[in-house]
Amino acid sequence: xxxxxxxxxxxxxxxxxxxxxxxxxxxxxxxxxxxxxxxxxxxxxxxxxxxxxxxxxxxxxxxxxxxxxxxxxxxxxxxxxxxxxxxxxxxxxxxxxxxxxxxxxxxxxxxxxxxxxxxxxxxxxxxxxxxxxxxxxxxxxxxxxxxxxxxxxxxxxxxxxxxxxxxxxxxxxxxxxxxxxxxxxxxxxxxxxxxxxxxxxxxxxxxxxxxxxxxxxxxxxxxxxxxxxxxxxxxxxxxxxxxxxxxxxxxxxxxxxxxxxxxxxxxxxxxxxxxxxxxxxxxxxxxxxxxxxxxxxxxxxxxxxxxxxxxxxxxxxxxxxxxxxxxxxxxxxxxxxxxxxxxxxxxxxxxxxxxxxxxxxxxxxxxxxxxxxxxxxxxxxxxxxxxxxxxxxxxxxxxxxxxxxxxxxxxxxxxxxxxxxxxxxxxxxxxxxxxxxxxxxxxxxxxxxxxxxxxxxxxxxxxxxxxxxxxxxxxxxxxxxxxxxxxxxxxxxxxxxxxxxxxxxxxxxxxxxxxxxxxxxxxxxxxxxxxxxxxxxxxxxxxxxxxxxxxxxxxxxxxxxxxxxxxxxxxxxxxxxxxxxxxxxxxxxxxxxxxxxxxxxxxxxxxxxxxxxxxxxxxxxxxxxxxxxxxxxxxxxxxxxxxxxxxxxxxxxxxxxxxxxxxxxxxxxxxxxxxxxxxxxxxxxxxxxxxxxxxxxxxxxxxxxxxxxxxxxxxxxxxxxxxxxxxxxxxxxxxxxxxxxxxxxxxxxxxxxxxxxxxxxxxxxxxxxxxxxxxxxxxxxxxxxxxxxxxxxxxxxxxxxxxxxxxxxxxxxxxxxxxxxxxxxxxxxxxxxxxxxxxxxxxxxxxxxxxxxxxxxxxxxxxxxxxxxxxxxxxxxxxxxxxxxxxxxxxxxxxxxxxxxxxxxxxxxxxxxxxxxxxxxxxxxxxxxxxxxxxxxxxxxxxxxxxxxxxxxxxxxxxxxxxxxxxxxxxxxxxxxxxxxxxxxxxxxxxxxxxxxxxxxxxxxxxxxxxxxxxxxxxxxxxxxxxxxxxxxxxxxxxxxxxxxxxxxxxxxxxxxxxxxxxxxxx
Length: 1067
Description:
Protein name: Beta-galactosidase
Catalytic activity: Hydrolysis of terminal non-reducing beta-D-galactose residues in beta-D-galactosides
Enzyme class: hydrolase
CATH topology of the largest domain: TIM Barrel
Low-confidence stretches: 1-26
CATH architecture of the largest domain: Alpha-Beta Barrel
Number of helices: 15
Domain Beta galactosidase small chain/: 793-1064
Strand content: 35-45%
Pfam family, one: Glyco_hydro_2_N
């Protein structure tokens, strides 16, 4: 991995000056929570997550409940005070009675327990800022509870552990001040050995909602307060393996590896350590020994000699492991390392366990390698969120997230924008997920101001160091990220320098490190030359040397492709955020990944983001909805900008994640000669062959499987392919029928995240077998005509149709006495705007012509072109402000079939349309829905790669996807026909002369537009049916600029469009 050249020498000078200025500027009279120089008092040094076991067997199990851990989760006494000066200041005293206080669950966020106001903003500060003075009133939550002394703690060090507290807190035990801590997402540990006593003990915690630390935690998520991660008391011997660092280092052939261990022993009393030793043993996944026992005297570790020049060798314990199983997301093989501190008699004093994965991350030139392979990151940004518990996630929540990632072929997460609970990393190690671990650092509102101020440098470094110290032993972590959206400055360079020197086994990431001011082609930020250059090149002209990758947010396809070919960019490229999945979004994923797979130097990216962050509420009528910014009276808010997930707030998969699964699938299928069944199967995995996969195929005729089978002997090496012949029999062709070949890959093993048989990859091919059907002649009784004013009624025994000479539209339609169209069949050029539309490219402003086009339709001519006993032909000609002409030709057959021919001729200089189609209403008694087209989930022109042509059946509601903020939804592309029927299977059939886009809603478009939450949607006595030729894609870049517009191939430019369909009784 390339090491930056200039930063280290600067860091020496910077470190001296920083220390000087920090000391100089510290103000004793400031309270800690308003002093950027005080972020920890009496807090223990950061260390790897581990537990002190009493013996080898318990340590091998890894079950922390086999230690003497005491959990302080559960009910605490709680007092909420809105103004800090009004809080009871002596609540921590043992004499202070809290029996009348409320009970609150820990962990939790107090706002979701009825105290204070949940607030959602993208950037926290909308007022004049003067860091470190916080501009809002500081609310305080005071907690108190008791715990019993554990007799096992005698002669041991006792540690009080808080997993995460927002934003900062003071702590007391038995009335004595223990310490103070900031950083809401890393542990705070305090040595309370001298504070606890036999019998009952009291712990008191005072949490401040807003502090100087809030300037460093200005992330785009809910601002929720309190003790949101677990609280526990740990104990360990007074001489203990308090910390350790484990590395694996492969030889050049990635055959053998050095296991390197650096234990850190601590003593809290004067203890005779003579004769004590540390032993290390590696065991494989089956519990068998995988190494010889490594030993070192404790005194040698405690008294390690550091040289005047150079540095000590990393490993204190080291051994070569021959041909170890390698860890990767595909093969997350874990060994168990047992570290034991023994006394002079060989009796275990302290035993620790650590899962170990043999994994190497390196950068060769501009390509990142994992275990020597050019791996791509199919990633997503993950926030801590639960729709009920907020940021207080359970272990079950976390495991469900990781299982879903695996099921949908994602292989990486970015812990946006803070370190996660340690259990997440355990799960990623276990299941196989690459992790970009991100420091809890974002100064969004003040941009790069604090990153360039020496008085904040120590706080920056503390957050980086503690993250690395805690998480350093996880093989899943392949990158350290310095934070998010905090500008760039020497404070970041200091973070990177420390991390790089301490741990050079992972790459350093920070998207804000853009623009290398030392480069001769550098452009001044904000200048005209900069804007012109950066908009094309995506760089200025490269990034600062303290990062190992060139990271970007939301580049367009053109910019990403340009960056991949830019001679100034000589590091791997990645998108730390892309494909902003807000609302109905995530279009053109295929196009992104076509570019990524073309270039070895593009590492991949992380979708924004994983889960919608709505909070479940009920209205006064008991109807549920998801609350967003502004719903709690928070005047400064970012509305529904928290709803960006590819899964819903309750972890229900959204249609977008199905597209991810397909785009990211590890096996791909390509047609060679479909008539002969010849297919190329490619294994896109980097480490696994296809030994544990079964390949199945089906042959379908119009959605009905007529033949199926299994492909045998499909053994494909990683990154290789095989050409196969699917042995289907050429079907006896039926006139008008379509034939489809489907191939899929399934796991032959039970996995932690899915059972045997789970479908991993798939592809559907349309076979070149088709005989054109002739139109059948109609038969029925003569058509009768009646007229009442402007309304003409055509009818016979089969049907009854009303058409208006004034509007030119079919007003209603009955078949066999049943109403099947209860609303006029009208042209439609618009849609209820998606978030990408409304917030992004704003067609409501730029394309307003088409928003108003339906109401501006002027009937220019109504003509009965032909009339006979067999059929009636009527033509309605419309003008739209003399800039577009529309002709609707209706052919009414005596068997009740209605054919609609639609012909639009619009000036090419008009703005793009959002859809070309027709809209009507169908009585909601016709609630059973079936269609033959793309599905089963919602799909659009730029998000339909995962969808398959088939016949899908259910109710109307089964085919509706409700976005938490209502908007355009539930479309299906390439629809051949749609049926809507009642319980007796009577109703209507809509069939296109060409594939249609179809959607059916239980609400009107007006209701979709008006509603801001799903509980506000008003169902009518009819379902809205959209019968479209085409609709604009949903877009997939961002949700706040013109780049949100779908790429050109998925737009609907103004021009000529023609399509036709029939409406008839369902058979």
